[in-house]
């Protein structure tokens, strides 16, 4: 069921025009692409050519109406992934869904349905929504506090796991000829918790993976706890080796404390790659794709984002990590801000260096295909990460370039497969099947 | 956009092993079929061969755990239809969904996503759940009374229509080169009603049909009102011509009273067809597929279902319709029971005759392919019905037989197309596009 040799796992984000908000000006395609199912089929086929384990959809159930931005979350990702699974073989789908604004029965049913339809290729990324614009689409209640959202998310997944296991045709005994089935293969779950009261059983049977693989993305204390309890693939932002090792240890230690085997956890952070024939060329592309226009522009953005007075800003002075710790109660994803503070705690960096180390909160790799492949393998080889979720600045361009130039190097180095092996996501990630 | 010549519309139900609970013993295939996506693909391809307008999925989000029954609602029908739409061209999908246990934003988003992915082939059948087993999967609240459920369903569709229209890229003005889009093409709906408070806009744009076609199935007073307000394809049980004409007039008169053009309403009741080389052979198949075993068995079942004391039961006495009116407050679909009482009100029938007029609450046609085609065209020709939703006792067998033997007759009579015309369900049903 699992491969015996450890290998690099790679997912790739394929939301709309790519990960970076300003890079669409330099991409191939039309603006109509963002709502065209056929465009997502082409991106998925491109990812399949690169033997990616999965395409990744982030999501918010709200339209970002900034006239200077672009709609980033449109077609429902579970619906879209279901159609793509029917069109493209092998590859998996990471689908982001809100535990705050779904009911466990419906979500368990829909996701198990897609896992069955795809033959075991679904990964669900359960998030507890933190955006007031999302809350306003689901009633007049204000957003609950973060702790309550995570407590609800944890119970949500407890219930979902009970539902996913509640009807298993493999439990059928001998069925007499006048009967269609052995109804004792299904049993009520009778869950009565703090947030949910649900009888069950689920009306979709156990699927090819037992249940869909569970991804988890929060890095706040509540997020770490949820990852330790339920997370199998951990999406996070890791900008340095010591920060990554500390994060992985924290999640795995918490899992052990909860009585869970940490062998079922994979660390697969986001990664932004910008390739050039030389590093200098990659730096210039970074300045363009980021929207900053120049290195000075990147520095000005850094000062603004971190509340530094331009009058006091020396881009060549070493930064103090403690000054960059995000407020745990702010209304955005805490984990996104933690990456920078941890990077600056573990490494002595100036702002001029720091702006080249992350983009869109994720590890940034700038350089030639060889340099990028080396840097990916570097963090993977010692177990700091198990793989990456590539976030291409532009889709399709930066996916195509990565598949053409970086993937063959990873394959030649023997760390990445040349074709799909195993059938399910659990096989490919070496994750255990639920009992 | 619409065809000028009226023609017969046909859908076909493809839940699990077919419509009748006891007919699986006489079908081709294995029990594993009911959870096999590939089985549903084969059924959809069969329906496509017969140029059916749509396949139809009824649904309850609960597992029927009767050991003597069979699971009838398993894989989520919207998820399944989305995969099928990616695999089979042209044909539409009627997907049943609960307004009681979904949020309008999520439902509007998912359905618009599937309508876009399928190129305008989605019909949603909105039902207000009446089953306590369903309620128990969604919390500890008891089922609200019928009137409240229908009021909520009506506001649910009001909100969904606002959301479906809230982002329309066709409203975009000139977009300056530094911008990705004209954000004024999307606007908040700011809905504040009795049941829902929703800001919007939807993050999926207007689809190829404006919004999915809305089917409606209830025949209680609340159901008629919902049909008149929102229904475009009315699924119902019509057992006789006068009952059908009275029902159609009632819905259309109510629509007019509400200021709606009744030209946008199609009456497409359920229909059970059992074919034989002779009528006698069809009668024997009816006795088998119904599970009754014989005509006496059918009569005994009739007496039991209608609370008639066997000692007082004369199967050859004319029945009184007034004795068969269902209780409007009982915990099941009122419309299902109304069909029989209306049949017996409009026609003088004995029990021996009545048991051959409906099966599974729907109009039953027993006979040769020619007799069946004649009876279908008979009700269609004078506008009593606009078409039918075929409910095959056995799937795939009775779909295959209908496609092979009845469809060619309907085509030869010039009432039914030989191939798919138009692109969307609205085109094929001659339904208006929302403004």
TrEMBL record, chains A, B:
Limits of the Luciferase-like domain? 32-385
Which class of enzymes does this protein belong to?
oxidoreductase
Q: List the keywords (alphabetical).
A: Flavoprotein, FMN, Monooxygenase, Oxidoreductase
Identify the CDD domains for this entry: Nitrilotriacetate_monoxgenase
InterPro entries tied to this protein: Diverse_substr_monoxygenases (IPR051260), Luciferase-like_dom (IPR011251), Luciferase-like_sf (IPR036661), NTA_MOA (IPR016215)
Q: Could you say which EC number(s) this protein's record lists?
A: 1.14.-.-
What terms describe the molecular function in GO for this protein? monooxygenase activity
The keyword Flavoprotein appears for this protein? yes
Which Gene3D superfamilies does this UniProt record tie to the protein?
Luciferase-like domain
Q: Write out the similarity annotation.
A: Belongs to the NtaA/SnaA/DszA monooxygenase family.
Stated name of the protein: NtaA/DmoA family FMN-dependent monooxygenase
The organism is Devosia neptuniae
Q: What is the lineage of its organism?
A: Bacteria, Pseudomonadati, Pseudomonadota, Alphaproteobacteria, Hyphomicrobiales
